Amino acid sequence: xxxxxxxxxxxxxxxxxxxxxxxxxxxxxxxxxxxxxxxxxxxxxxxxxxxxxxxxxxxxxxxxxxxxxxxxxxxxxxxxxxxxxxxxxxxxxxxxxxxxxxxxxxxxxxxxxxxxxxxxxxxxxxxxxxxxxxxxxxxxxxxxxxxxxxxxxxxxxxxxxxxxxxxxxxxxxxxxxxxxxxxxxxxxxxxxxxxxxxxxxxxxxxxxxxxxxxxxxxxxxxxxxxxxxxxxxxxxxxxxxxxxxxxxxxxxxxxxxxxxxxxxxxxxxxxxxxxxxxxxxxxxxxxxxxxxxxxxxxxxxxxxxxxxxxxxxxxxxxxxxxxxxxxxxxx
Length: 331
Ligand code: AHM
Ligand code: MG
What we know:
The chain has 331 residues and is α+β, with helices and mostly antiparallel strands.
């Protein structure tokens, strides 16, 4: 059995000049994930379900667990001392970790502490997504520009899924590995080494309730998924949890496509590029899949603000390529 901590140290040799900072940063994220997991597990028993009463910068009501998870990740990163600045879904501005140990740190982190908030109160899987970048500024407190980097500049990225079991999946650009939390010893243990997404699949994940608002290319692609055809095992299965991490994790293991397209009222879709689309795009590409906005690679999109939105087509390469063909032809 290999624990996350052991694995991270072992993998440090992939980076000959590494001083262990990135390893410690990943360790800090793992620690916060365990604390958040503990709270999620007993959510129905503790007074932690429901709204916090605060509306965040996205205009969405924060859940108590959103707030709790945000505090835990920021506090672990702050005391860990390897990250100087955090961009979080729950904070309008970047958070400077201005402590003695962290202010000169080399890395910055973008995070959605608890993704899939609408599922929290009903005991359905939720997640955390994170991206790690090397700062651009040289020392002292970080600046906004440190985090406004394209997805291609990510040093590491990952997600935690708090599901029927809790897993942490991450990449440092050399493949994707998944660790399952063993609650009896409180450790993430390597359970899914070198994950590869199937080239194609039979699952499509999209909120079809928004169908009338979708671009024509997406409507036509959905119809393609639903047509009967033995050779391609259609009609495909429709699966939509409403937690992107959970939908993506399933498609990563089984093969499939997840789409959150633009709609008439949301021309860039709903999801946020910096802390939702980019980390998951990095993971999926590293697993051999594909992630675009229907036209352009997600990781190549210019980042101008931390909460900017982007449409996403992500998953098995052949399925995403075909959806893009429909976009090119009809949208
Ligand atoms: P959140 O970060 O506020 O939870 O929103 C992101 C989530 C994704 O996890 C999920 O796939 C999507 O929003 C669901 O949105 P919708 O209910 O519009 O389908
Ligand atoms: Mg989110």
